[in-house]
């Protein structure tokens, strides 16, 4: 219970309660005590009620320093100046108002922009220093008055200004982190949608062209093409709903595609006149691969197969996924011929490279010496414990 009270964030009512205690104990009581001191030069001693009233006027405004920082700083400074100038607070007891002045100047610097707090602080400091210099006599030289007045006021203002700057810096860093997180989330969703749309639309276009070509000569083959288009479209809609559903706070996360879905992905690509040979294995079971790494592997294979369907079909493609204890290695090669206009780098390759980089892995892609194209990726991971 005690630890909770010490570590929890104070509410506004708690802060005002603390200020009220400071105003009564450290402010009014201390200033009244200083005012009750008798002057060393034998001047007239004021009535007790004047000393108490002086302490109240200097100390009690501290209770509302958070709500009226400028007004409290000016009020406390003028009251202290008047008390020092009239001798109600003797010059040797000038440290009495220092707590109220420090708290007032701290709040002034924390809650007020520099263009307002600095001139106000300088004006209040000048008033206090003037009172000290006038009443100092032989004890207080002008230099000593300035030094003592600055000692009572400047540290509080400097601490408040430092706190304000640190809070502003933290706010800017938080805003920058938020903008970066939003940008990364937009990039992630853009990659997901690109992979989903590019892959499915490539298969749909290929099968639509086949269906259109054989519609009259072979109606059965045309219907087969339409069934492939329907199945591919339904799958794409499901994946898009899953990807876009993550943007809604009240939508639970659906399982993302992973290593277990590679067989179905290879079967889809075969509709696009690509003969896919898939091998998934290694010393570590698929279940030990983290979901994020499994999704990255799936998207890399998906984009690679999409490129084969778009640029190299008909072709034979070999996909090898090796699951090791420290990384997952992906190799996708094909023997297809690409046209001279086929892009060597595009959003698909950029997206694959970004996915691999986000996991701290390595990625290469380019034409093979013997013809065709090769994609290679290594994604490090920490194996997930699999329940027996």
From TrEMBL:
Which residues does the UniProt record annotate as the domain Histidine kinase/HSP90-like ATPase? Answer: 292-383
Question: Which reactions are catalysed by this chain?
Answer: ATP + protein L-histidine = ADP + protein N-phospho-L-histidine
What are the recorded GO MF terms, alphabetically? ATP binding; phosphorelay sensor kinase activity; protein dimerization activity
Bilayer-crossing residues are 15-36, 48-64, 71-89, 121-140, 146-163
Alphabetical GO CC annotations of the entry are:
membrane
The EC number(s) given in the record are: 2.7.13.3
Enumerate the UniProt keywords alphabetically: ATP-binding, Kinase, Membrane, Nucleotide-binding, Phosphoprotein, Transferase, Transmembrane, Transmembrane helix, Two-component regulatory system
Instruction: Spell out the Pfam families in the cross-references.
Output: DUF7134, HATPase_c, HisKA_3
Q: What is the protein name given in its UniProt record?
A: histidine kinase
| Species of origin | Dactylosporangium siamense
